[in-house]
Amino acid sequence: MSSQIDHLLNEDRRFAPSAAFAATAVGDADLYARADSDRERFWADQARELLHWHTPFTSVLDWTNPPFAEWFADGELNVAYNCLDRHVEAGNGDRIALLWEGEPGDERRVTYAELTDEVKRVANVLTGLGVGQGDRVAIYLPMIPEAIAAMLAVARVGAIHSVVFGGFSADSLRARIDDAGAKLVITADGGYRKGKVSALKPAVDAALADRNGSGPQETVEHVLVVRRGGNDVEWTEGRDLWWHDVVPAAAAEHEAQAFPAETPLFILYTSGTTGKPKGILHTSGGYLTQAGFTNKVVHDIHPETDVYWCTADIGWITGHTYVTYGPLANGATQVLYEGTPDTPHPGRWWEIVEKYGVTVLYTAPTAIRSFMKIGRTVPQSFDLSSLRLLGSVGEPINPEAWMWYREIIGSDRTPIVDTWWQTETGAIMISALPGVTETKPGSAQVPIPGIAVDVVDEAGEHVGNGNGGLLVITEPWPSMLRGIWGDPDRFVETYWDKFADRGFYFAGDGARLDEDGDVWLLGRVDDVMNVSGHRLSTAEIESALVAHEATAEAAVVGASDETTGQAVVAFVILKQSFLDAHPAEGLATTLRRWVSEQIGPIARPRDIYIVGELPKTRSGKIMRRLLRDVAEGREVGDTTTLADTMVMSTIQAKITT
Ligand code: WTA
């Protein structure tokens, strides 16, 4: 970390927005002034300007029971109406909402009128299945237009969606279905990934398989299945329904009912410091306000002319806020791509940029670094001149990747917005405004208008410019999480207890303020790893490893990795009883596959080291810091607090031989 900080400290390149960009930019410096003079009024103005309220609100923020906030609580709206019908009613029904590209190269263009029609039908199907206000619906779909339609239809009837990333295993899906008590699952037979059909329905079947009386009672009544992969699937009569049978047959008329602004909109599970994923809860009015506002001013969306593309999967928060809700609330036209960046060739993304004339691209540093590795000739063989703004999200972007992104993808011309936020914050919190801020490679820089953050020490004191500390959010914000599903105590403990006397939200990230007071993010300070921009918990992977019959104990660390930011590295102690009866050969491979099956391929350890002991303090706490030293090939740091100071040399001898 210290070499990283030194490196960042020496970064003095600056990029001011061009006069031409600034002249047409949506966001201007005046936004900061307005927000500073009256923060609540500023957000109320945004909510009124950006959204349609069936019942206007009079109350802006209710913070009388912190940390449980209410925004615009006496107002009523319908989220789907805001993303769809009102654009059609305003005469923009023919505008394309989705420029969808399947991995094999098939395409669909979906207008706002068509998407509205589809969502109305799906809403009628949901009502017919008994899904209504407050019910939970799990969505396990590939990146196809139906995924967006499903989310919006759930929102339209006042139900709550829980989107589960298609790369998660049956076990992970089951845990999420159970925690939320989902009544319906919306899935597909399969979708295209890396040149072939990757099945999804079998994971749903496995998740819902007979539990032999173990586990919580089954809450799922129906499974709605989109045909996409064309692969054979098993069918449970009475439970399973084909989307293409029921959706086109449903009535096309559906009037959007208004719901109170604090109506839950979705639950999204994310990794925390313990083994059990947290169901982050977001509600309607405040979330949609900040989603729409940030997409507009940070991504500089001009709905009539821009072709926007956020490459995130809807299984993550970035896909929720910057694929589904933000751009559709703004009436934007966006690209939706089903597949992987390198299928069938390494220039696939740049081919898509050229084909659709993408103007604004929003992606993750891990993708940029993997393109850097392939080399500039691939993107340079496509016409990328339509691009006028680039965005980055999900992990710290190192200055080299930032410069490559700007020079090679952005022709040394486009502004870059490095946006810091979290599943919990719901929307962008720290970012440059592209027409206003002079940008610095590697720094997310400044809170957006209406947001207040600080970098503090352990006591909650501001660290002052030039110093590092912990990132906190000092004032409530419209799209803040409203809780952890079913666990209000964990919500308070995880985010608010640390700085309870000050009322700060603790983000879990380390950060540094430079001499100008700009924020540089330095990565997580807890046991959460960030692999390819995805959050993974060390504890969750450890508990998957020890669930295998061969494993006695396991410790997992995130080791820095040139491409993925961090990589999962596991240290495992095997059971003697297992070794007595089985050969040890191939076990590391078996365990890697096991983790992939238990959680999903994103959690598969890059390396597994079989060791005899783990470094522990006298109180029995595993010293991950030392394991990280080993995993990153560094000299092992201070071992004096270890119960057995010999352990590290034994581990190192084991790994280097
Ligand atoms: C990290 C993704 C540095 C951070 C939107 C945060 C970042 C976690 C940035 C949230 C950024 C996200 N610079 N770090 N621009 N953006 N992070 O919930 O550690 O998947 O706490 O939300 O990603 O990850 P999550």
UniProtKB/TrEMBL annotation:
Mg(2+) binds at V546, H548. It is an enzyme of class 6 (ligase). InterPro entries: Ac_CoA_lig, ACAS_N, AMP-bd_C, AMP-bd_C_sf, AMP-binding_CS, AMP-dep_synth/lig_dom, ANL_N_sf. Its EC number is 6.2.1.1. Residues 540-621 form the AMP-binding enzyme C-terminal domain. CoA binds at R193, K194, G195, K196, T318, S532. SUPFAM superfamilies: Acetyl-CoA synthetase-like. ATP binds at G394, E395, P396, D418, T419, W420, W421, Q422, T423, D509, R524, R535. Residues 30-83 form the Acetyl-coenzyme A synthetase N-terminal domain. Acetylated. Deacetylation by the SIR2-homolog deacetylase activates the enzyme. The modification N6-acetyllysine is found at K621. Keywords: Acetylation, ATP-binding, Ligase, Magnesium, Metal-binding, Nucleotide-binding. Its cofactor is Mg(2+). One of its GO terms (molecular function) is acetate-CoA ligase activity. It catalyses: acetate + ATP + CoA = acetyl-CoA + AMP + diphosphate. Catalyzes the conversion of acetate into acetyl-CoA (AcCoA), an essential intermediate at the junction of anabolic and catabolic pathways. AcsA undergoes a two-step reaction. In the first half reaction, AcsA combines acetate with ATP to form acetyl-adenylate (AcAMP) intermediate. In the second half reaction, it can then transfer the acetyl group from AcAMP to the sulfhydryl group of CoA, forming the product AcCoA. Belongs to the ATP-dependent AMP-binding enzyme family. This is Acetyl-coenzyme A synthetase. The lineage of its organism: Bacteria, Bacillati, Actinomycetota, Actinomycetes, Micrococcales. The gene is acs.
